[in-house]
Amino acid sequence: MSIRWATIGVVAVALLAGCGGERPGSSAVYDRISATTDCDALQREFDTASASHDRATTDDQREITLSYMQAADDRMKEVNCY
Fold first, then answer.
1. How many angstroms separate the CA atoms of 33 and 36, rounded?
2. How big is the chain by its Cα radius of gyration, in Å?
3. pTM value?
4. 9 Cβ contact list (under 8 Å, min separation 6)
């Protein structure tokens, strides 16, 4: 769990440092995350993004996957997964 919090901290810094309003990546992924209320499915979204981040080879890929992780984490909080 501490890795998740460290990653979320990095996400927060990256998002605060950078983007001009639009989220990086696919709007379909964000739509899927925001439509989901199942905590297990949201955790899978987070885990998939985290694994993709670990394999990312460019800064753009890392930014996108960090943003997906943040979206999944935010949604888990919204639906009281933890």
1. 5
2. 12
3. 0.74
4. none
Helices 59-78, 2-17: crossing angle, 10 deg rounding = 110
Q: Give the position of tokens 């800064």.
A: 59
The predicted pLDDT at position 6 comes to: 56
Q: Please report the pLDDT score of residue 16 as a whole number.
A: 47
Contact between 42 and 78 under an 8 Å Cβ cutoff? The reply is no
Q: What is the per-residue burial (b if ≥16 Cβ within 10 Å, else e) of 8-46?
A: beebeebeeeeeeeebbbeeebbebbeebeeeeebbebb
Q: What is the pLDDT of residue 8?
A: 59
Q: What span, in angstroms and rounded, lies between the C-alpha atoms of 12 and 14?
A: 5
